[in-house]
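User: Predict the structure for this protein chain, please.
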Amino acid sequence: MTSQHGAFIWYELLTTDVKAAGAFYGDVVGWSSRPFDAGNPDGYHLFSTGETEVGGLMVLPQGEECPPDAAPGWIGYIGVGDVDATASAIVADGGRQHVPPTDIPGVGRFAVVADPQGAVFTIMKGAMDGESRAFSPDRAGHCQWNELTTTDPEAAYAFYARHFGWTKGEAMPMGEAGVYQILDRDGISFGAVTPAGPEVPHPVWAFYFGVPDIDAAISRISAGGGALLHGPHAVPGEQFIVIGRDPQGAVFSLVGPRKA
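Assistant: Here is the predicted structure, written as structure tokens:
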């Protein structure tokens, strides 16, 4: 995939059990999963919807590669034109570098960083031609929304605007909870920044994956050993959202219509 500077180009699950997680999300979201390297069935895996690869999953790193309090969870990849320059600029702007710029032969160059409030994400310049289709706001099986919950929404927005060119879309007042600020890229809304409440332990990105039937997905969450944490809640566009926790402990979000 090309750099698509400022676009979310990939989503990745860090988990303690790749096989079990692949089966769970296959049932709940409808993804298929396979090893990236057929000769290494215990290594990196790919999630696909139909013929389109939309994300990956891997065993949660241990030791110096991962913070001591790291737990299973999802991380988003933002495309950049120059990984080294962007990583340096992020650190100079109060962010943090968790994994330095690193090459993946035949795939691209990446770095794991955090914004000044502590939300972690990955930046990447892909080595392959073609644009990523991992994010698609109207397709089931793809990420449809990227949401940052943070302790300082205005500072966070300014940070991402400086480094990725994002702009403000509609601002939706939420009373005492603050403002839900829509994020645009090239005039298209792709996510939002929202204030963190007391129930959020630290700033974090959440990714809403589309499903064709939200009630069917809810049933499969519990049947697969996961837990429903919030929802279903109605959102614009006759859609409903839920937040769940998979059997390995990773929190995930879904969006979709009600068929009943």
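The longest strand covers residues 96-104.
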